[in-house]
UniProtKB/TrEMBL annotation:
Catalytic activity: L-glutamate + NADP(+) + H2O = 2-oxoglutarate + NH4(+) + NADPH + H(+)
Protein name from the UniProt record: Glutamate dehydrogenase
Cross-referenced SMART domains: ELFV_dehydrog (SM00839)
Similarity field: Belongs to the Glu/Leu/Phe/Val dehydrogenases family.
Length: 434
């Protein structure tokens, strides 16, 4: 009997992990005999709550808030909050499930969780966003804590929202603790946290390219999204000598076959982080082509970095990428490729890294933010960047250890899933049936 049939994203994430783990589980029956799989797919706890807030016109709105506390075998729950109209329990369970394996891969002691709301920050004033965040945190504050559950940002939750939520937590609990990460530098945030997921994805892809004695120099790179992850993935690609040829948002794709300049990048940053506008608005100003309502996957490229959202790259997109000569795909977003798209990449034997390995840099630096807060000190940007780089290299090595085939091909899906699973499963075995 299929439990929760209305949660397709969660089933998709579980299927991807379990299918690639299966031969390993058969060879290691201790994991099969102890109900580990049954326990891994059931959240330890799910909290759902009402969030009521008042808009600028005095109108009352009601949204739904969630926190999925998925697995705490190796540390306190850790994972972002997403504010987007598409948020529902199934989406958050898929994200929390992925987070468990991802956090294990970082080498840091963090369990997995995820939360958020179906609230849409787009088009809302700062005052409305603040009132929503305060209402959301008023309830969430009962369920989180620096040694219990430490949320962070995700889609729709950036520095502004984290600041509003942190202020409300502090007001309610009367304590200054590391209960959220992604905080501003002036109140306990870590340098390099905004950059971490994007930089980490590119560091990981760089390790993959090295496997084929290759590098980013001169590579045409398509990037989807234009939010936090996409912005800093683009910056690092440019830094390594690659040509970033696209950004996108839900309105379409901005294309520059010659590669975006730093000036273009600054304009995208200002548009998305300050004016909170749409890419379409600047296409004319920059004299660049804009493909309305289209993703970037039809554009010929060498490397593709999907950095927007789940299931944004399907089987036919994957075929187009492979046919156009793309040699490397690293997921900055969570589960951007459908199961069939992943099959296409693996069958074509191109370099393919799943999000749980390639985008783990964000949560890794969140873990470093918690360490700095606990020690009451702050590392320099160089120190944090160095640790991030080393963590991404160690995740690559773990994928290689468990995913390298006899013919030398690295199946990063298999490698990441087994490496993450073994750490969590061993901790669960040691702690008994709980
Ligand atoms: P942001 O909110 O900063 O940006 C999201 C981007 O994706 C925007 O450009 C947005 O466009 C686009 N997007 C979102 N939903 C859709 C959709 N349904 N269709 C088309 N485009 C869409 O989020 P982040 O950059 O933080 O997150 C992006 C991805 O990376 C997510 O999958 C997230 O889970 C993952 N991730 C993020 C981490 C982080 O540290 N931030 C860590 C690890 C993973 P628009 O504005 O038009 O909606």
């Amino acid at each position: 009997k299929l439990r929760d049939p209305d949660q397709p994203e969660f089933h998709q994430a579980a299927e991807e992990v379990l299918a690639s783990l299966w031969p390993f589980l058969q060879a290691n029956p201790k994991y099969l005999n102890s109900g580990i799989i049954e326990r891994l797919v059931e959240p330890e706890r799910v909290i759902m709550f009402r969030v009521s807030w008042v808009d600028d016109q005095g109108q009352v709105h009601v949204n739904r808030g969630y926190r999925v506390q998925m697995n705490s075998a190796i540390g306190p729950y850790k994972g972002g909050l997403r504010f987007h109209p598409s948020v529902n329990l199934g989406v958050l369970k898929f994200l929390a499930f992925e987070q468990v394996f991802k956090n294990a891969l970082t080498t840091l002691p963090m369990g997995g969780g995820k939360g958020g709301s179906d609230f849409d920050p787009k088009g809302k004033s700062d005052g409305e966003v603040m009132r929503f965040c305060q209402a959301f945190m008023t309830e969430l504050s009962r369920h989180i804590g620096a040694d219990l559950d430490v949320p962070a940002g995700d889609i729709g939750v950036g520095a502004r929202e984290i600041g509003f939520m942190y202020g409300q937590y502090k007001r309610i609990r009367n304590e200054f603790t590391s209960v959220l990460t992604g905080k501003g530098i002036s109140y306990g945030g870590s340098l390099i946290r905004p950059e971490a997921t994007g930089y980490g994805t590119v560091y990981f892809a760089e390790e993959m390219l090295k496997e084929r004695n290759d590098s980013f120099a001169g590579k045409r790179v398509t990037i989807s999204g234009s939010g936090n992850v996409a912005q800093y993935a683009a910056l690092k690609v440019m830094d390594l000598g690659g040509l970033v040829i696209s950004f996108s948002d839900s309105g379409g794709t901005l294309y520059n076959p010659d590669g975006f300049s730093m000036e273009h990048w600054n304009q995208v940053m200002a548009l998305k982080n300050e004016r909170r506008g749409r890419l379409e608005e600047i296409a004319g100003e920059l004299n660049l082509e804009f493909f309305a309502k289209q993703t970037p996957w039809h554009l010929p490229c060498d490397v593709a970095l999907p950095c927007a959202t789940q299931n944004e790259l399907n089987e036919s997109d994957a075929e187009t990428l492979v046919n156009n000569g793309c040699i490397c795909v690293a997921e900055g977003a969570n589960m951007p490729s459908t199961l069939k798209a992943v099959d296409v990449f693996l069958a074509a034997r191109i370099l393919f890294a799943p999000g749980k390995a390639a985008n783990a840099g964000g949560v890794a630096v969140s873990g470093l933010e918690m360490s700095q807060n606990a020690m009451r000190l702050a590392w320099t940007d160089g120190e944090v960047d160095e640790k991030l780089h080393a963590i991404m290299q160690s995740i690559h090595a773990a994928c290689e250890r468990y995913g390298k085939q006899d013919d030398g091909f690295i199946n990063y899906v298999k490698g990441a899933n087994i490496a993450g699973f073994v750490k969590v499963a061993d901790a669960m075995l040691a702690q008994g049936i709980v």
